[in-house]
Amino acid sequence: MSVGGGANVERGNPPQDMLAAQIRMQGFVCDKPLAATRDSRRSKPDRAVWILKCSNASYSVSRAPDMAAKVTPLK
What we know:
It is a single chain. The chain is 20% helix and 32% strand. By secondary structure, it is α+β, with helices and mostly antiparallel strands. Strands 1-2-3-4 form a 4-stranded antiparallel sheet. The longest helix is centred in the first third of the chain and has 11 residues. It starts with 6 loop residues before the first helix and ends with a strand. 25% of the residues are buried.
């Protein structure tokens, strides 16, 4: 599963669904993904940072190709 700069978004796949699946595989809970917005200030060309809002929590999700996501719960 790749959630990089947005190629999958262009194909019609909501980024929040892909990001939620990724963080669930890493042991985080996202009951219902509501929205995902790219954090352009923290993103870099080789690492996209997204803010994922779920019904139960919000996360900062940093993704790089071929690596596990770095997930930080937000308050």
